[in-house]
């Protein structure tokens, strides 16, 4: 299948996971300049050159091709060595510059409607606006350390063909930290049968970094500021989830990005995103 250059606005980046083929990878999602959603995989983000590392709400130009092994319409293989980073869309003037892109993304008011769209339209990336956040569930993982198999993946030689320059291949990365906790949002949506409760796991890299920063600054008391941000600060905004499903189990969804614009004033149009 032919590859092509695309200009893509980055909207999501998940916390890395060990990969037998690529050492470690993140799932990256965004929207191209024609309004089409893109899932980019694999992206060994920590291993690429610093001048190619991008942020949310930053444009990148890169070569992609439709993934032959993943039939979800949004899924594309990315040629990491072609990444060129561009400008970041600022959150100025009430997110007016981001709003046009926000409005192009499929958006649902209930998880049931999103799942129905997956079944009928094959949607696998979309926005979900919950009616209300109930709570954040924090659960210690069964094994806070990597398994032997995972360690083998993480310690393998970073020989990725022409993916990295010689200097990048020699670069010694700090071993990826395993997240010792899982984070799930419990939230409510309106349905034709009334309010319904849902629970989904959050895998946004920025949430993982928030956890690490809170633990660094507050030690064993990290949970208080962490919850304050995710349960109070975000809930006071127009919190929206970017949802992505799992390739092998497509009925299972994850929150791959948190987007939290300020709530619109009465009579205002929907706001853009903070990220």
TrEMBL record:
- What's the name of the protein? Uncharacterized protein
